[in-house]
Amino acid sequence: MLSPRTSGAIPGAVAQAPNGAAVPLDGVALTNGVTPSPGAVAQAPNGVTPNGAAVPLDGVALTNGVAPSPGVVAQAPNGKASSPGVGAPAPDVVPRRRPYAWREVGLAAVLVLPNVVLLALFTYRPLLDNIWLSFFHWNISSPRRTFVGPANYVEWFTARDTGTVVLNTLVFTVAAVAGSMVLGLALALLLDQKLFGRGAVRSMVFAPFVISGAAIGVAFQFVFDPTFGLIQDLLGRLGVASPNFYQVPGWALFMVTVTYIWKNVGYVFVIYLAALQGRRAELDEAAEIDGTSTVRKFFRVTLPQLRPTTFFLSVTVLLNSLQVFDIINVMTRGGPLGTGTTTMVYQVYQETFVNSRAGYGAAVATIMFLVVLAVTLVQVRLQDRQD
């Protein structure tokens, strides 16, 4: 029999106790005389530990009564991790903050900076220069200019022809926007169908948009000529006298508006056609299954899907129509009767380069900019409410 003091005992070896029970030489209690494996749970004599929990033999705390595998960090009672066999909890671990992504910021700056520089040089700086110039009286051919404050604005609001210019601008803009969008949508709905030769027709509808406005103005002078024009010939066959488009202000404005709509309808047509081809087909199929009429289907199914496109076109066509100069200059030069077809943008040209009043022209341009800005903000606000 070996004594407990025997040196060189093998781990797990047992000695015989006086009462006949086997006693391990390495200090680990036996269960039924068998040496437990590392991580085994000791059992109290009555089968339950004093607090009702099993106690591991290797000093590692248990989780739900199960001993963890060797090397697994035990969970302390306070929820903090602790090393095996160590009673004191480890300090809180502070997660490291992600370093600032300077590389992404640099890449974004490289991509955005050229556009910002171009906008600053060719859009924002000229705008600020124009506003500053509107407070001066300056002959564009003279190196000297005189500060006059808001006198240019006061003169424009009190001028006798301002009402006519504003009315011409309003009528032309509303008619051009409404006419372009209605005709463009109608052509898009028509040419979205499976028709013979629709590809060629689509090209012909879009072609005027890429042609110079001055060239279109020259061509339509022959269409509206009251003596030998195309409209005069058609009306003559019907026994109707042709209006004098170049002498009556109302007919002259009608002529310019129709010419611009003919040029601009291709742009609206292409945008609406792309939107129609991208709409949800299942909604159209559901409407057909329900037996919805064509008109009801258009207003209840198709048109709501085109709302974002309609908003986009209303803004862009409005801005483009307010900047029309070439067609008016070629066809009527702002006349007849002086201001028969003069719009605000044409007045800017007339005052700046013809009458050599750059300050007054800059004031008109600033007023037009503020009006366009206000109208655009209202459109955006209405669109946000609808969304």
TrEMBL record:
UniProt KW keywords: Cell membrane, Membrane, Transmembrane, Transmembrane helix, Transport
Compartments (UniProt record): Cell membrane
Record field: transmembrane: 105-124, 170-191, 203-224, 251-275, 358-378
InterPro entries referenced in this protein's UniProt entry, alphabetically: ABC_transporter_permease, MetI-like, MetI-like_sf
Membrane topology according to the record: Multi-pass membrane protein
Protein's UniProt keywords contain Coiled coil: no
SUPFAM superfamilies, per database record: MetI-like
Identification of the protein by name: ABC transmembrane type-1 domain-containing protein
PROSITE patterns: ABC_TM1
Protein source organism: bioreactor metagenome
GO cellular component term of the entry, any: plasma membrane
